[in-house]
Amino acid sequence: MADETIYKSETKRSRRSIATYLRRLAKALGRGKPVPVDDEQTVTVTPAAEPAMEIEVEEEGETLSLDIEMEWEGEADDVDTETNVSKARFELYEDREGKWRWRLVHRNGNIIADSGEGYASAQKAEQGLDSVKRNAPGGYVVDTSKDDHEATVEEGGSHATFELFADKGGKWRWRLVHDNGNIIADGGQGYASKQKAKQGLDSVKTNVRGAPVERTE
């Protein structure tokens, strides 16, 4: 059988963005789960337990390349091009005041993120959630209760930062702040502990990509 390319992607990324992508692959590999190879998590591959791995650094003129390749004997069932790793969906809706909003709903029924603000049109609201899709997975996590914010940075590769903070009532919350200063998402609810709030934003990081968008009443 002739070689067939099932999926291919070539884009310029920051080093932090690449690190975020590789961490997602590493997490799936470590857990023995199908590995999402695209950002939308719609293409997954299930490697063998012990695939052959080849690492090669090449120089061609003034260009350097680092190639990491895994190879194993498998079947077509090892690749799924129509999967949905996300366990959540975006709901796009119009509130009582005629503003458009979105919320990210986990399959367990919990709202794990929302737009915070209302938008003048459905198109604007969808642009807002698209920004969250792009920026949430690789967003920095900053604990504003600590003096040394740099020590709490965990991930990168986006134009937004997750801020963990305690509100006036002592509840822990998170918000996703774009580099332009706009809050593009928040957790909606307060959590009893910092750990619970962190788990909530981690769920957003994991599920935001690949989540379908549904317009509801």
Q: N-to-C terminal Cα separation, in Å?
A: 50 Å
- Note the run of SSEs as H and E: HEEEEEEEEHEEEEHE
Mean pLDDT: 87
Query: What value does the Rg take, in angstroms?
Result: 20 Å
Gross geometry: globular
Largest sheet: 4 strands, mixed
Summing up helix and strand content along with how strands pair, one would put the structural category as alpha+beta
Secondary structure tally, helices: 3
Query: In the CATH classification, which architecture of the largest domain applies?
Result: Roll
Main-sheet strand order equals: 8-7-6-13
**Strand content bin:** 25-35%
Low-confidence stretches: 148-155
Tell me the CATH topology of the largest domain: PH-domain like
Q: What's the helical proportion of residues? A: 10-25%
Number of strands: 13
CATH class of the largest domain: Mainly Beta
Count of the domains? 2
Commentary on this structure:
This protein has 217 residues and is of the alpha+beta class. It has 2 domains: 66 residues, no CATH class; 128 residues, PH-domain like (Roll). 21% of the residues lie in helices and 31% in strands. The protein is built from 3 helices and 13 strands, in the order αββββββββαββββαβ. The chain has a 4-stranded mixed sheet with strand order 8-7-6-13, covered by helices on one side. The protein has a 4-stranded mixed sheet with strand order 9-10-11-12, with helices on one face. The longest helix is centred in the N-terminal third of the chain and has 17 residues. The chain is globular. It holds the Pfam family DUF1508. InterPro entries: Amphi-Trp_dom, DUF1508, UPF0339_domain, YegP-like_sf. It comes from Halohasta litorea. This is HVO_2922 family protein.
